[in-house]
Every structure is written in structure tokens, then in C-alpha cells.
Amino acid sequence: NAGVMQNPRHLVRRRGQEARLRCSPMKGHSHVYWYRQLPEEGLKFMVYLQKENIIDESGMPKERFSAEFPKEGPSILRIQQVVRGDSAAYFCASSPRGQVETQYFGPGTRLLVL
Amino acid sequence: AQKVTQAQTEISVVEKEDVTLDCVYETRDTTYYLFWYKQPPSGELVFLIRRNSFDEQNEISGRYSWNFQKSTSSFNFTITASQVVDSAVYFCALSGYSGGYQKVTFGTGTKLQVIP
């Protein structure tokens, strides 16, 4: 049973470009969470999605950031017009029934904005 | 609102020493979970333990042990006979309800360096 997969593992973008981060949850998991870890900091919740629905996006910046979890395929975290301050590690976690105590984390995507 | 405080930013110990990482939390929930994660230099998050708020029994797993005290809202983590491979950033985390939804709140982490 494969774990949570994230790709790419490393992503380099220039300022103003778009970044697309993908998260494939564990088999049978229909709940996905995205977290951001800025350098030298802890993880901070961004958004919680269920298949085809955004449940809670209270931690996501209002501009330039969006997330989706389509019926088929991975969850996508999209950052438009990236700025240097977006450089961070982005972690995805999944859970089978939306209970955060049973969430499993992916290996993360390290985004570097030049 | 939930809060997790890891007051120790960095700790250095010599190999084979014991070390305790402190974690203090704040929550209004009566049911919650506490976690510890390890983040080695490679960057991934390694799950170490999850503890239910109703279970105050201390836990031991090999060289690792955890002390959960509800009275002081603390969930401390002790590594006995530390090894170089224990060098990592350790995060304490708390799950509970915030803004109507269940969320996990992380502390800022404690960087542990074990010197050979």
C-alpha cells in the first residue's frame, strides 16, 4: 500500500511564474490537507479538501493560491505569480475519513523561487 | 484557539546523554490528540507518536519515552542514550477544532544536535 505521494519533490521557479504541486493520497483516502513550512518554522495548515470540495481554506492566502481535489487524479496546490516569500516546503497529508488524528504525510515538495 | 509551544529552539547533547524536549499546549477542546514528529535533515516528516487526551499513561518505545501531563498541559519527549542519528528537528503538534473544523497545530520545533 503506497503512502502519500507528492511531486515534484523539488521545484524551482522564477518570480512571476506559476507553481503546481501535486498530491496523490493513500489508496482509499478521500480527504487531503495541505500545509506549508517556511524556513526554520513549523508546519502551518493551509487548506482541507474532500473529493471535489474545499472544506476549509482558512489557512490559505487569499490571493495567488488555489487548491483542488478533482474526482479523478491528484490534489493540486497552485501558486500563481510566485514571489520569493513562497519558497517553502509544502506538505500534503491524507486521511480516510477526515479525522486529522489519522492523517498520513507525504514527503513534501520543496519550492524555491529565484 | 490552539497553541503549541516548544520553548527550546536548539539543543546540543553529547552522544549517549539523555535529552528531554519540552512541549506545552493550549486548547479549549476536551477531546484532542497530541503528536510528535521527527524531521531529519532529508526533510520528510516521520511520525513518532499520537496520544489521545483521555490517555495519560506514559509511553515508552525503545529509547524514546513520552510524558503526558494534562494538569500542566505538557507532552514532553525524552530520548535516552542519544545517538547521532537522533539529530533532527522535532515537532510537537495538537489536533483540535478551530473555526469549526478539526485542524493540526504544530509547534515551531526543537532542533536537536547529537555530537559524537
Quickly describe the structure:
The complex is a heterodimer of chains A (114) and B (116). Chain A has 114 residues and is mainly beta.
Task: Tell me what the structure shows.
The complex is a heterodimer of chains A (114) and B (116). Chain A is built from no helices and eleven strands. Chain A is an all-beta fold. In chain A, strands 2, 4, 5, 6, 9, 10 and 11 form a seven-stranded mixed β-sheet that branches. Chain A is globular and about 35 Å long. Chain B is mainly beta and 116 residues long. Chain B has no helices and twelve strands. In chain B, β8 and β9 form a beta hairpin. At the A-B interface, β5 and β10 of A face β6, β10 and β11 of B.
The oligomeric state of the chains shown is heterodimer
- Give the SSE order of chain B as H and E letters: EEEEEEEEEEEE
Q: Averaged pLDDT of chain B, please?
A: 93
| Poorly predicted sequence stretches spanning 5 or more consecutive residues of chain B | none
Instruction: State the order of secondary-structure elements of chain A, H for helix, E for strand.
Output: EEEEEEEEEEE
Whole-Å distance between the termini of chain A? 37 Å
| Major pleated sheet of chain B | 6 strands, mixed
